[in-house]
Every structure is written in structure tokens, then in C-alpha cells.
User: Which sequence fits this backbone?
């Protein structure tokens, strides 16, 4: 290799600015691709964590259940095969004192350590309080037909149960509202052998074998758990039913990861293309700066390819370094932008591969650009056309129309089967981004035309404006570049934030409509009939609601205290007008319900007198009547307490008051939020990319000002020496840079708000549930953008004026 | 030996050189004429940096109009050394004086003594005056072993004293030299002078 090529890497040091720009360009490129890989993987892990939060911890490992097994065999099965085995006898009527009641016996290692003892303790029978009260059982009583003696009375388990009991909740938590004998508590024995001492009535049993395992953090760990678990269960070979929740969790997590990955792909491709264009621009600037040397080498016989290699030898190291720094930044900042912090093992290698790929592409672009540039400069003909004349905005606009058609037709994607995640249509998801891109391209073209035409404008009455316009026109290339990136930045931030926010609020609203309140619990009719009063501590936060098929019975006075409604005053006013005339109860007709008299079982004849578009629990179809119009509350299907309190607070108050309850619902957990989270994570990343682009735009603007420092200094120093006031110069720079910022924010905000506004209602992972997602309040976001833009404008203007203040006229003119 | 037969150069509808024929002589050949007469354009064509619109350029009697860019570069690499008007354009700014000579093909730095630049091998290019840079440029041309040196206005950006030193260097070169210049001193030194007129 000849000396000019050998010395090229060291020559890079001769221009620190080119060095920094090259590093930053591939840093951003590397960051985008590495972050996309890490983000997708972290989305899979986050989906797994989300699902683990929704299932019982002891059920994550494949488990075994069986029923109708002879008791002795059940005991052997549960105790000799490892794992956490439990045996529950059939329900029968144990007799302690002659007052027989329904109960079942059970054994689970360590069970008594997870119960709240009310009386006694020890190694005898542990009787639940409900059974002890019903049968008047005391400590020391002996089970008739057995030698077992009661040694403790414990508080019945109730929803929500602790994690240790969660997988057994169906068996161990009594349903006090169920019919006699249908559900009852468990009398615990201290050791499995004690079950052999039970009376003959308890001859069959159900078995559950759980295999408690540490929570998994990645899909790979979950797959290992599944495979090891299934191998273990196959080895045991027990004739029990196998439950495998982890497989479903893996499938859902992998789908979430793939959905996020495929949804990010178009954005990443666009970002990589923008980044490679940036690398090309850096190379073109390098070729301009090295023009003399390249011409010298060319006349000495070097070809364009050799000169391209000369370019990559000089710029290559910074480009590689930038890529590596991008990877490091993506990994370090993952907690800030990613949905989770635990990418799957090997993801970092995948990210490294992706970064290496874009670095190689960058190097190739550098070689080809330098090669093409030198060929065109020294060997080619004058350029007759430019890439800019192609109607890129029309092409992108056409793609946006195609994306809109897919979005309008299918929404996010086809409706999934039961228990499946929707497969997101990545092409449809690109609609708002394509609109932003088309708007950005259109804005830059209009701006370029305007700047070309601007020499006709005479604003000398406002010298600051005239100077600003001339400076903008003189730097049309950098100005349009900054506006393009600025519009993309503002647009992607706004689209990403608004769609992610809409998904968050949609999940919240749909959950609210589905449950009706923050928490609900089914209670007995005694609260409706007045036999039992609502605890004082729940007044103001809780209301009683009767549920019949297609109709709700509400208390107008307290309903809006607890229920989640869009317009509480309107609902309160409508409910206040309800009543009963003879045998007919006036009702509120909800949404699409028929506007005619209606007979609902257990309720009087309903006659719609008012209407509301939607209602908690009912959605957009049903009727609402007031409690006072119901003559027989016991005939209403079921009664529920709706509360604005968290479910734990509601149930704690009910337990304290001794009110039995069942069918607890928690707004935060009632819906599987994974489809919403998937879209939210995707657009969260879009917003993160927008932030990166915003940094690029701001730095590019400041760099452009810094590069023009000498020009600014000369013209500014001359202008002030000819009598221009410094304040006027200051305002001209503010106008110049402010115009760029205003154009970027205005076009980006309008394009993104309009496109997101159209897309958000259609980006609904669960369109069969009301309400549809709506655009969140974007004023705070817009305000933040304006503030940040103003800060950048002020910094750029200060930078421009600094050159004027510190300029030495003689030195400048030399 | 470079020979031009009926060479013409046009840019769009503008004719820069029309029907020009010449043959370089041993020693110093000067293309002289006022600004706009086509000296530099003709020089670029004769140095194979630019293709003529018409006519033929022969290098050692080899016609060049049908050669590809690759073949032209190869021919230029072996036969022709070009020295530009601006001294800084002839040197690689981030290399030292010695490295510039080495980059041109010199195996040792003894040439620096002949150029009056002895002891400057480790200097940065910026440390040389314009005249010194231009002399070093001719040194690089020599070091490349070209059979002809082509120089465009080599003294136009130099003061009189520096220009004298360059002229001294020019006339001492052991290979034919083809120069475009309107410097009367150069014309006086020329073995062959080709006057061009602007039309």
C-alpha cells in the first residue's frame, strides 16, 4: 500500500469535526439497530414478566392434577414423587360434636405455616373458622370415627390469596355464597399419614402436584423450565392431568417479541437509510475537503475505487468506533427506553451482528460515495439531474395510502383466536410514520423552492427579517436537511407518544367498562335486602349493583362514587330521574339496546325513559334501573359491591365486617393487557427514535452554525461596524434559527397529530371491547417540544453571535 | 513526447480550444497567451486529464482518444507528471516534506538538496513558502520518473524571488517540460513557444 493510503488513518486527526461527525453518525446508526434488537428481546422478556404476574407463581412450572382417586393412592402419589404435592378429600360431613357440617380434609406440606391461627396450634386437625362456627367445634374435640383431635382454628382463606395458596385457590378458598356443600373450606391434617385415619366417608381425593420454581426472566429460561418440567413429568409417568401454563406464556411472549420486532422493522429500515444517507453526506464533505489531494492522486494515476478506499481508510476507524459506541449506548440505556431490562441470552451478540452489518454498510457507502464522487468530479460529465428532483414525497404518500387501506380494513391485524395474541400488521402500523415522512419531504421541497424564490423578497423595512431570509437562502442545503430531520423527530415523538398513550388509556378504559369500577366483589342478597348493612368505612367509595341478564340495578345516590364513568354529572342526573310507576320501572337505555318495554327476569317491566351511549359493565347495550324500583332484590341475578378502592382494601374491609364475598374482580388485572402493551412498547420505541432524531437535528443545527462561524463573524462584525444595533443582529439570528424550529415543530406536530388522530381509533388490539382508543391530550407534549425548540434556538443564536463578539476585524478580513 | 492533432474542446456551445495541433519539444515548451485563450484547457487535454471534443492526442505516438479512463490513468501514471497552479494543490498537506517525496516514488531524500530544500525532510508542508512548495512539487514530478512534466501557470501565485527559484528548477529538469504561462520570463526561457490567441 502506498504512503498516502498508509497515512490515511492518521490524516483523520487533521479534522476533528469530521472525526466527531463520523463517530456520531454511526453511533446513532448502531444505536438504532442495536436498540431495535434489544428492545424486541426485552419486549419478549417483559411480556413473560407480565404473564407471570397474571398467573400463580407455583403454576408456571408444568404441574399435575387429578381427581376421583382413592385416598390411599392419592396420598402415595402426592407424597412420593417430589414437588409440592397436596391431597384434598371429597366433601362430606365430618362430625365433631354431633352438629355435622360440610367440609373436606387436606394435606399440603407447610400448609399450617401459611394460615392465620385464631385459636390453638399444634399437630392435630386445623379447622377453618366457618366450619368451627357452623358445627360449634372447639379445640380438643375429636373427629367422630377417628382418633384425630382438633388442635387449632384458623381464619378461612379469602380472595385475594397469597402466592403460596394461589394455585390451590379453587379448592382451599370457600365460596360462602355457593349452595350448601358446593364449596367449603379445608380441615388440614398435620401429616399425610393422618389422612388414613379419616372416616370411610372421605374415601376419594383430588391431588395437585406443583413444582415451585424461581421466576424466569427470559423466554430462553422459560423454555428451559418448560422442557425440564415436561421431561420430569414424563419421567414420573403419573396418570394425572398435566397443566402447562408456561408453554402458553412462551408462545404469547414470543409473539409479542415478534410483533414488536416486525413492527419496528420498517422504522428501523427508514432510520438506517437516513443514517446511511448521513454517512454519504459525511463522505461527500470529506471528498470536498480532500479535493486537492484526491485530484493529485488521480492525476498520478489512482482510480476512483482506490480513492474510495482512501476515503474508507480515513473515515473507517471513526465509523467502526461509532458503531461500537452505539451498541454500548443501546445496552446501557435499555432501562430508559426498553419495556424490560432483561434481553434474552445471545441478544447482545445478535445486536453486535446487526451493528457490524450497518457498520459494513456504512463502510461500503463510504467507498462507493467517494468512488462515485471522484469519478463524477474528475472523469464524469456535469451532473444533469439530482436525486432531489425525484418526487419522493409522492412515493411515500402512495405508501401511506396503502398502509391506510390496510389499517382501515383490518385494523392492527386479523382477530386472533381464543387465548392468542393478535398478529400485528407491520405495514398498517407504519401509516402515521409514513404520513410524517411524506409531510417532512413535502415541507423540505416547499422550503427549498421558497428559499430559491426568496431573493425576490425585499424586507428591508425589517432588516432583521431580511438578513435572516438571506442567510437561510445562502445555506439552503443545511437548512432543508435540519428541517427534514426536525420534522421527522417531532413527528415520530408525537406519533410514538400519542399512540403509546392511547393504548395505555384504552386498556384502562376497556378494563373500567369491563369491571365497572376499580374493584368489585359479589356479595349476598342480604346487603340488598337490608339485613346486612354496608360497612361505614366503605361509604363514599362503594356502591351496590345488581346484575341481571342485560340490565343493571343501581343506587343513583352512590353509583358515581364508585363506578368509572366518563361524565359523572350527566350519569348522576340521568339516574336521578329514574323511578317506578305502578308495575313499570323507568329505565336508562344504553347504546344500541331496543327502545321499547322490556321484561328482564327478576326485574319489573322496564320502560326506557332516558338513554346513554355506554355504561360501565354493559358497554353499549343494556338497561339500567334504580334499586328502589326492584320489589324483590332476592330475585335479581346477583349483587356486587363496586368500589373505587383497590381490591385488597375492599376485601380487607369486607373481611373486617364479616361480610362474605366471592368473584372478586380487579380492574388492573381483569383484561389481558399484552396486546395493548405490545403496541405501546412498539410506539414507545418510535418515540425513543424520535428523541434520537431530535438530538441529531439539534446537533446538526448547532454544527451548521459553528461551521459558518467565520462567515457569521465577518458579516456580523461588518454590519455592527456599519451601524447595525447588536439587538437587531441578535433578533435576526433568532428569526433565522427560529424559522427553522417553527417549521419543524409546526409541520411535524400537525402531520403527526392528524395521522395519529386518524390511526389511533383503528390501532385497537381489542375492537370488540368498548371504548375505542382515543388520542390523549397532546398539549403538554407540544408545550415540551416548543420549550426544547426555543432552548435550541436560543443556543444557536448565542453561538452565532459569539463569533461576532469575539471577532477581530483585521484578522477576519485578512 | 506528446503530440496533438486538430484538438478541439467545447463546453456545451462554447468552444474553448479549436483545431489545435502541436508537438512538444525536448526541453521547455511554453503555451503562452492571454487569459481565456485556452492554455489551461489545452494543457489538461495534453496531460490526459480531460478528453478533447475533437482531434487526437498522441503520447509517444500512441493515440489516446479510444483509451478507457483506466488506460488513460495508467498512461498518465507512467508517462506524465502534472504540476498545478496553486502550490498547495501539488502536495499532500498532512504529510511531511519527505513523505510527500516518498509518496511520489522517491526512495531517498537526496533530491531535496537539488531543490534547495535540504534538511526540510521532516518539516510540515505548511512550514514551506509558496515557492518552496512549488519547487517540491517539481521534485515530486521528477521522483515519479515521468517522461514529461506538464505545469499550469507554475509561477503565477509566487513573488518574483520565489518565481526565479522555480524557473531555475524548471530549466534544470532532465525531462521535457510543457508549461502554460503568460509569464514573459518563462517565454524567454522556452525552447519552443506556442502562442495562443483568444477569439
Assistant:
Amino acid at each position: 500500500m502506498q504512503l498516502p493510503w498508509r497515512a490515511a488513518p492518521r490524516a483523520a486527526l487533521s479534522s476533528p469535526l469530521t472525526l466527531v461527525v463520523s463517530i456520531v453518525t454511526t453511533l446513532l446508526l448502531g444505536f438504532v439497530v442495536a436498540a431495535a434488537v434489544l428492545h424486541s428481546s426485552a419486549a419478549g422478556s417483559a411480556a413473560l414478566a407480565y404473564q407471570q404476574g397474571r398467573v400463580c407463581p407455583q403454576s408456571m412450572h408444568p404441574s399435575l392434577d387429578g381427581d376421583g382417586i382413592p385416598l390411599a393412592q392419592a396420598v402415595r402419589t402426592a407424597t412420593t414423587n417430589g414437588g409440592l404435592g397436596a391431597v384434598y378429600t371429597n366433601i362430606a360431613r365430618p362430625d365433631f360434636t354431633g352438629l355435622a357440617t360440610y367440609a373436606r380434609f387436606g394435606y399440603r406440606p407447610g400448609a399450617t405455616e401459611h394460615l392465620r391461627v385464631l385459636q390453638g396450634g399444634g399437630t392435630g386437625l386445623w379447622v377453618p373458622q366457618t366450619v368451627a362456627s357452623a358445627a360449634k367445634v372447639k379445640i380438643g374435640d375429636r373427629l367422630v370415627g377417628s382418633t384425630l383431635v382438633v388442635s387449632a382454628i384458623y381464619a378461612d382463606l379469602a380472595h385475594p390469596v397469597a402466592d403460596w395458596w394461589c394455585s390451590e385457590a379453587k379448592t382451599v378458598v370457600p365460596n360462602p355464597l355457593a349452595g350448601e356443600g358446593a364449596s367449603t373450606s379445608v380441615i388440614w391434617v398435620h401429616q399425610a399419614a393422618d389422612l388414613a385415619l379419616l372416616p370411610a366417608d372421605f374415601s376419594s381425593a383430588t391431588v395437585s402436584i406443583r413444582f415451585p420454581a424461581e421466576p424466569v426472566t427470559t423466554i430462553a429460561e422459560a423454555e428451559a423450565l418448560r422442557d425440564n418440567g415436561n421431561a420430569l413429568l414424563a419421567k414420573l409417568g403419573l396418570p394425572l392431568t398435566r397443566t402447562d401454563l408456561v408453554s402458553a406464556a412462551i408462545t404469547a411472549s414470543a409473539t409479542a417479541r415478534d410483533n414488536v420486532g416486525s413492527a419496528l422493522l420498517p422504522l428501523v429500515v427508514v432510520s438506517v437509510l437516513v443514517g446511511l444517507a448521513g454517512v454519504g453526506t459525511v463522505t461527500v464533505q470529506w471528498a470536498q475537503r480532500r479535493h486537492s489531494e484526491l485530484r493529485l492522486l488521480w492525476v498520478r494515476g489512482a482510480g476512483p475505487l482506490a480513492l474510495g478506499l482512501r476515503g474508507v481508510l480515513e473515515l473507517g476507524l471513526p465509523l467502526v468506533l461509532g458503531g461500537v459506541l452505539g451498541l454500548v449506548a443501546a445496552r446501557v440505556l435499555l432501562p430508559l427506553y426498553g419495556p424490560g431490562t432483561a434481553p434474552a441470552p445471545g441478544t447482545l451478540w445478535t445486536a453486535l451482528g446487526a451493528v457490524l452489518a450497518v457498520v459494513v454498510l456504512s463502510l461500503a457507502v463510504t467507498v462507493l460515495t467517494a468512488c462515485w464522487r471522484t469519478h463524477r468530479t474528475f472523469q464524469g460529465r456535469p451532473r444533469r439531474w439530482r436525486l432531489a428532483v425525484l418526487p419522493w414525497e409522492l412515493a411515500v404518500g402512495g405508501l401511506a395510502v396503502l398502509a391506510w387501506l390496510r389499517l382501515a380494513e383490518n385494523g392492527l391485524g386479523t382477530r386472533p383466536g381464543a387465548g392468542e395474541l393478535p398478529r400485528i400488521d407491520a405495514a398498517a402500523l407504519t401509516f402515521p410514520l409514513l404520513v410524517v415522512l411524506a409531510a417532512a419531504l413535502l415541507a423540505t421541497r416547499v422550503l427549498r423552492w421558497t428559499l430559491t424564490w426568496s431573493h425576490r423578497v425585499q424586507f428591508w423595512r425589517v432588516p432583521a427579517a431580511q438578513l435572516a431570509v438571506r442567510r437561510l437562502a445562502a445555506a439552503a442545503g443545511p437548512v432543508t436537511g435540519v428541517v427534514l430531520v426536525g420534522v421527522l423527530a417531532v413527528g415520530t415523538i408525537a406519533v410514538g407518544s400519542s399512540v403509546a398513550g392511547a393504548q395505555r388509556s384504552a386498556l384502562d378504559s376497556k378494563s373500567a367498562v369491563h369491571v365497572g369500577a376499580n374493584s368489585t366483589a359479589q356479595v349476598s342478597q342480604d346487603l340488598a335486602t337490608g339485613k346486612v348493612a354496608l360497612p361505614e368505612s366503605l361509604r363514599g367509595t362503594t356502591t351496590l349493583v345488581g346484575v341481571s341478564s342485560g340490565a343493571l340495578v343501581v343506587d343513583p345516590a352512590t353509583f358515581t362514587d364508585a363506578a368509572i364513568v366518563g361524565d359523572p354529572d350527566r350519569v348522576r342526573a340521568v339516574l336521578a330521574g329514574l323511578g317506578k310507576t305502578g308495575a313499570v320501572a323507568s329505565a336508562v337505555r344504553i347504546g344500541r339496546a331496543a327502545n321499547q318495554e322490556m321484561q328482564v327476569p327478576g326485574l319489573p317491566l322496564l320502560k326506557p325513559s332516558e338513554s346513554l351511549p355506554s355504561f360501565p359493565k354493559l358497554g353499549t347495550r343494556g338497561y339500567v334501573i334504580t334499586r328502589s324500583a326492584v320489589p324483590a332484590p332476592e330475585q335479581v341475578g346477583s349483587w356486587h359491591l363496586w368500589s373505587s378502592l383497590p381490591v385488597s382494601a375492599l376485601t380487607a374491609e369486607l373481611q373486617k365486617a364479616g361480610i362474605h364475598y366471592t368473584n372478586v374482580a380487579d380492574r388492573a388485572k381483569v383484561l389481558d393487557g399484552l396486546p395493548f402493551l405490545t403496541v405501546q412498547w412498539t410506539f414507545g420505541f418510535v418515540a425513543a427514535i424520535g428523541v434520537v432524531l431530535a438530538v441529531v437535528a439539534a446537533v446538526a443545527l448547532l454544527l451548521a452554525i459553528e461551521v459558518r462561524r467565520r462567515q457569521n463573524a465577518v458579516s456580523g462584525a461588518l454590519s455592527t461596524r456599519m451601524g447595525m444595533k447588536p439587538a437587531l443582529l441578535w433578533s435576526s439570528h433568532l428569526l433565522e434559527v427560529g424559522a427553522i424550529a417553527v417549521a419543524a415543530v409546526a409541520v411535524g406536530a400537525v402531520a403527526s397529530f392528524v395521522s395519529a388522530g386518524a390511526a389511533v381509533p383503528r390501532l385497537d388490539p381489542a375492537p370488540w371491547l368498548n371504548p375505542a382508543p382515543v388520542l390523549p391530550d397532546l398539549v403538554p407534549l407540544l408545550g415540551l417540544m416548543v420549550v426544547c425548540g426555543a432552548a435550541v434556538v436560543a443556543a444557536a443564536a448565542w453561538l452565532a453571535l459569539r463569533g461576532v463578539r469575539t471577532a477581530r476585524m483585521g484578522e477576519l478580513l485578512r | 513526447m506528446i503530440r496533438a492533432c486538430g484538438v478541439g474542446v467545447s463546453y456545451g456551445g462554447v468552444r474553448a480550444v479549436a483545431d489545435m495541433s502541436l508537438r512538444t519539444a525536448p526541453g521547455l515548451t511554453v503555451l503562452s497567451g492571454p487569459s481565456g485563450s485556452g492554455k489551461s484547457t489545452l494543457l489538461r487535454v495534453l496531460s490526459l486529464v480531460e478528453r478533447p471534443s475533437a482531434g487526437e492526442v498522441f503520447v509517444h505516438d500512441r493515440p489516446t482518444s479510444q483509451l478507457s479512463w483506466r488506460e488513460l490513468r495508467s498512461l498518465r501514471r507512467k508517462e506524465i507528471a502534472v504540476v498545478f497552479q496553486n502550490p498547495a494543490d501539488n502536495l499532500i498537506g498532512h504529510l511531511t516534506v519527505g513523505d510527500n517525496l516518498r509518496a511520489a516514488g522517491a526512495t531517498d531524500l537526496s533530491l531535496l538538496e537539488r531543490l534547495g530544500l535540504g534538511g526540510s525532510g521532516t518539516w510540515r508542508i505548511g512550514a514551506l513558502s509558496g515557492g518552496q512548495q512549488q519547487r517540491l512539487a517539481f521534485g515530486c514530478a521528477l521522483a515519479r520518473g515521468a517522461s514529461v512534466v506538464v505545469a499550469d501557470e507554475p509561477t503565477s501565485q509566487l513573488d518574483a524571488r520565489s518565481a526565479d527559484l522555480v524557473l531555475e528548477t524548471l530549466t534544470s529538469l532532465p525531462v521535457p517540460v510543457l508549461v502554460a504561462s503568460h509569464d514573459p520570463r518563462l517565454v524567454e526561457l522556452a525552447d519552443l513557444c506556442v502562442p495562443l490567441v483568444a477569439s
Observations:
- Chain A has a mean pLDDT of 88.
- The CA atoms of residues 535 and 657 of chain A lie 6 Å apart.
